[in-house]
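For reproducibility, we list the full input for the PRP complex.
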Amino acid sequence: MTEPLTFALAKGRLLDETLPILSALGIEPTESLTGSRKLMFETNHPEIRLLVLRATDVPPYVERGGAHLGIAGKDTLLEYGSDMLCEPVDLKLSACRLMTAMRVGATLPSTGRVRVATKYVNVARAHFAAQGRQIDPIKLYGAMELAPVVGMSDVIVDVVDTGNTLRANGLEPRDLIAHSTARLVVSRVAMKTRHALIQPLIESLNAWVDKQHAA
Ligand code: PRP
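The corresponding predicted structure, in tokenized form, follows.
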């Protein structure tokens, strides 16, 4: 028997938005994904199983064949930067903007490396390189809004939704780097080897997105 199609989901806020989509496609986990320490789940489809991962781990799992496909934010995919992954469906969920932000009224140092606090080090490096600036990255996993306030960084690169977190910490948005939404991500290998199962899923997901955005 061929191994089941393995679908990697990101835990947290995105998972809450993803489960109703899977349900709309007729894919139901056989037990609750939240309230469990398990990481792999069977579904009502014997040929489809689910993994529940940290959002940043979805791209490497899909790229390295630990999963055939997954759902990840464009922000995470830009940071991971793999050409072995394709994004056949924009789910138009979890919309946010990847931006730089600084203390209100602050300016970048005129020379030298820009100290950037972020979990998006690759994105930040490319963004500032395009402005002819090198960065001194400070890799953080949360609460980067604090870094400029305590004088640890000149700027942050982070996702912004309402802007409330920036405002609450005395920061203001500056450069828009990219818009981000959740994407279906599939490895180029699985796209070929598991085409018969993946193609109908892509079509159903595209139909689901169209229905959500129909006038
Ligand atoms: C994100 C991001 C900001 C906040 C932005 O954090 O890191 O802190 O949301 O949203 P806002 O513009 O609406 O205030 P999230 O809550 O996703 O948690 P995280 O720090 O674990 O990424």
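The chain is about 30% helix and 30% strand. The chain has a mean pLDDT of 96. Both points were considered when choosing residues for closer inspection.
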